[in-house]
């Protein structure tokens, strides 16, 4: 898993710990059938990681001379994975910024 994905997972764990300390239940949405933020974030991280793995697998197959893999497919998949990783990093930065702002608010 990439550094960005590991950083996002650490952020999710930290946010869950803060929610528990505040007396909230981080999985209440799951118990009532709703969608949890942590679940959505983990799903996004998994999709980004999956895109990177597919791109790497195609690159390896192309470099081995697999006739079923075209260079343009490899390049497009690698670019998709790169854009998705950058998006994940930007989302992490925004979530972290919002988290810091919320934690600095006076109650």
In short:
With 107 residues, the chain is an all-alpha fold. Helices cover 79% and strands 0% of the residues.
Detailed description of the structure:
The protein has about 110 residues and is mainly alpha-helical. The protein has a domain at about 35-105. It is about 80% helix and about 0% strand. The chain is built from 4 helices and no strands. It has helices at about 5-20, 30, 35-65, 70-105. Its main location: other.
Key terms:
single chain, 107 residues, mainly alpha, 4 helices, 79% helix, elongated
Strand content: under 5%
- Measured between the Cα atoms of the first and last residue, the distance is 37 Å
> Helix and strand string, N-terminal first?
HHHH
Give the helix/strand class.
mainly alpha
Major β-sheet annotation: none
Overall average pLDDT: 82
Runs with pLDDT <50, length 5+? none
- Helix tally equals 4
CA radius of gyration: 18 Å
Tell me roughly what share of residues is in helical segments.
over 70%
Global outline: elongated
Number of strands: 0
Subcellular location: Bacterial flagellum basal body
Protein name: Flagellar hook-basal body complex protein FliE
Organism: Kushneria avicenniae
Keywords: Bacterial flagellum, Cell projection, Cilium, Flagellum
């Amino acid at each position: 898993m990439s550094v960005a994905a590991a950083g996002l997972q650490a952020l999710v764990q930290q946010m869950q710990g803060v929610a528990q300390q505040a007396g909230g239940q981080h999985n209440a949405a799951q118990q009532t059938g709703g969608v949890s933020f942590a679940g959505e974030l983990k799903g996004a991280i998994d999709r980004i990681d999956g895109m990177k793995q597919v791109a790497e697998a195609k690159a390896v197959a192309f470099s081995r001379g697999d006739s079923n893999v075209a260079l343009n497919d490899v390049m497009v998949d690698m670019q998709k994975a790169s854009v998705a990783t950058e998006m994940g990093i930007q989302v992490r930065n925004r979530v972290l910024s919002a988290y810091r702002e919320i934690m600095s608010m006076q109650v």
